Amino acid sequence: MGALALMAGSVVPSQAQDIKFFRIGTGSISGVYFPVGGLIASAISHPPGASLCGEGGSCGVPGMVAVAQASRGSLSNIRDIRAGRLESALVQSDIAYLAVNGKAPFAGKKAVPGLRAVASLYPEAVHVVVRRDSPIKTIGDLRGRRISLDLKGSGTRSIARLVLKRYGVGPKAVAHLNSQIGPAVDRLRSGKIDAFFFVGGYPAPVISQLARDVPIRLLPIDGRQAAAIRKTEPFLGSVSLPASVYGRSAATQTLAVGALLVVAETVREDVVYGVTRALWHPSTRQILDQAPRAARRMRLENALAGLAIPLHKGAARYYRERKLLDGGAPKPQADGDGAAGGAPSKIPGPPAKGAPDGAGGKP
């Protein structure tokens, strides 16, 4: 069993000022996790001396100062939670599932069985981006091309390798120029790579900017290959990205995975309850509505949709109070994010081991 390094206090204390620091791991500063993490940090923070909730001040956790930290992505975030370098993080649900259940790359002593969910936030689409004038039409056409799968430690890289394998494109069949999304966009713009993978909320601002500079296409992940991937990897769903996203001429069918806010099981119940309550406080909606469109899809009614790991006790307590948990299990929810601008996505989740307080699996 992988032991979590977080101590009973569960946040980094500053006793002199009675401040609780709460670190949230995100992703690349050019991606979607970083700005979303910053907005969540703003919503759950309420430092000493701040105006009261309802009087123009934050409705966050009293005494908490939350900060969003850039990172390599989901795998790196979970490892940092395990090591006590983060209190919380945004991660892909598939990566969270692998960590809790001790599957590669978290097999054996690397497992993180104490990882717990706070909420499912929004669906993330698997983007495979090429220039519109590229001869590359399918994933199989990537063989022999220069592509970026993102950095080691990212959730994007994990899914990209899975997709390529299913399409018969082995790791030695492509030239890797791996980087995070920002540099990858720059390389595609300048013609230094032929394609890049990105898993994230849509539309991703950095890809939207690329589409304004250089016409692009998204490669579909559909048909029998997508069905085969979803059969063996039940945490993956599907989504149709509408033509209006990135100014393309047609909708694109692709895979999708849920974005989760997670914490360590050892974080105090009252702290996680406060974080969950602040995350879904009505005043937080005003913050999220100013965010990238991915964050605007965050809705309380979808907070338990497709969780792949158990809920933290503090989060489960909040959802029971809001009547979203019934008898320890999530009440049935409608599939999809319910957001305008695209067909609803279906983000299933496999049953999680030992879910003591709430969601594990498809609600």
Task: Characterise the protein shown here.
With 363 residues, the protein is an alpha/beta fold. The protein folds into 2 domains: 12-122 and 257-330, Periplasmic binding protein-like II (D-Maltodextrin-Binding Protein, domain 2, 3-Layer(aba) Sandwich); 125-256, D-Maltodextrin-Binding Protein, domain 2 (3-Layer(aba) Sandwich). 28% of the residues lie in helices and 21% in strands. The chain contains 11 helices and 15 strands. It has helices at residues 33-44, 74-82, 93-100, 155-166, 181-190, 205-213, 223-232, 269-279, 282-288, 293-296, 313-321, and strands at 12-14, 19-25, 45-46, 61-62, 64-69, 88-92, 115-131, 146-148, 175-176, 195-200, 216-218, 237-241, 252-264, 325-326, 329-330. The strands form 3 sheets. Strands 1, 2, 5, 6, 7, 8, 9, 10, 11, 12 and 13 form an 11-stranded mixed sheet that branches. The chain has a two-stranded parallel ribbon with strand order 3-4. Strand 1 (12-14) and strand 2 form a beta hairpin. Helix 1 (33-44) runs antiparallel to helix 9 (282-288) and helix 5 runs parallel beside helix 6 (205-213). The model is unreliable at 1-10, 13-17, 332-345 and 351-363 (pLDDT under 50).
